[in-house]
Amino acid sequence: VTDTARISLKVNGVTHRQELEARVTLLDALRERIGLTGTKKGCDRGECGACTVLVDGRRIKSCLTLAVMQQGREITTVEGLARGDALHPVQAAFIRNDGFQCGFCTPGQLMSAVACVHEGHTGSDDEIREWMSGNLCRCGCYPNIVASVRQAAKEMS
Ligand code: FES
Ligand code: FES
To answer: Which residue windows are coiled coil (predicted)?
Structure first.
């Protein structure tokens, strides 16, 4: 016997009704149930930040929370950043500054960067590095990621 729960998740403004086991993480619900595979699974244990999404505007690691706990909240994934053909300023800044190589960490970096700018943690490169430190990049794009966040902060201010 498995304990399933009937839940509804609001992701990028769209409500998704799901029946899933209570132990399913938000990350697995997004990727495997709802089909939003932009959010990446790196470590699946809170260390890499590849799975970062926004919940009610705050960044969280979606591998560390259960889907059932996020009902009624506004969840934003990387798929929800652009407005039609118009990239979010953070996405545009990552392209302009070569803020990625393989791109695997990028969705998480983008979500973290959006929050970092809104939190006002972009006063200096050191501050950006500190507040983006939960997002690892195996390709070592850190200088370009910092430059991207710096530019996005300027454009969003
Ligand atoms: Fe969630 Fe690595 S997959 S922090
Ligand atoms: Fe490859 Fe960051 S761009 S892991």
So the answer is: none
